[in-house]
Predict the 3D structure of the following.
Amino acid sequence: MPIALDNLRIGRKYQLVNMGEIRQVEIIDRLRGSNFKVKDLDTLEFYTIEELLQWGKGKDYDIDEIFR
């Protein structure tokens, strides 16, 4: 069961699975509501959660904390 976006915490790392894409991200800042600035740990690019979910949530949608 995925974590609710409201429960994401700044400084923590998460694995986001959606529409067949797997991304490992770190939460950098809370922007407004349930939107966050995130850093992709593979490419080191910055996104917002809204950008990553703008096309909807697929059947495989999952977000879990990474403990490493």
Notes: The chain has a mean pLDDT of 92.
